């Protein structure tokens, strides 16, 4: 792995009194990696769409790399396993080490409408992902660290959460309630407008009202600049 520094993640508890078993940890980390790879795919689509439609977005945003590593032989002391569970072993999610500085762009159920270019880009990216996923995916708890990669200032996103209608994308998935939280809090910005994203209003709303609402959001953003 060259001379890079890496960090390894494992779940020991998830807010309950019961400890996390080796198999549960492996499943949770698999979900974490799937979220990471899924967000990477959507970000590439988002960047390509912005380039094609000539929308000025922040292009210095990337997703962290990551892979799963399974221990072989005697468990490491850090794994917290005293002995192998039958047919199980410790699994870790390994990612490149980031800086200690962490920038928060959204929470699990709180979706900020920041006015800086990076924040506006990430808000529009979340809207884009929701539309491209046929209104079935919301990325949440979006955070990143500023890094200098090959001489370029870059924001590396990591530990992203998501909400699905089925509530099964991993830890922190609030299902339909999580999706509704984004719909109710997101304000369309000029990037959403440039990408011709549909306004986030309930399906039963009148289409004409939806278009007007999105335009009002955009005008409000422009007035604040």
From TrEMBL:
Organism of provenance: Sphagnurus paluster
Acidic residues bias (residue ranges): 203-225
Keyword NADP: no
Protein name, UniProt field: Alpha-type protein kinase domain-containing protein
PROSITE patterns: ALPHA_KINASE
Coiled coil: none
Region (Disordered): 201-225
Source species, domain of life: Eukaryota
GO molecular function terms attached to this record: ATP binding; protein serine/threonine kinase activity
Keyword set includes Transferase: yes
Domain Alpha-type protein kinase: 1-200
Record keywords: ATP-binding, Kinase, Nucleotide-binding, Serine/threonine-protein kinase, Transferase
InterPro entries attached to this UniProt entry: a-kinase_dom (IPR004166), Alpha-type_PK (IPR051852), Kinase-like_dom_sf (IPR011009)
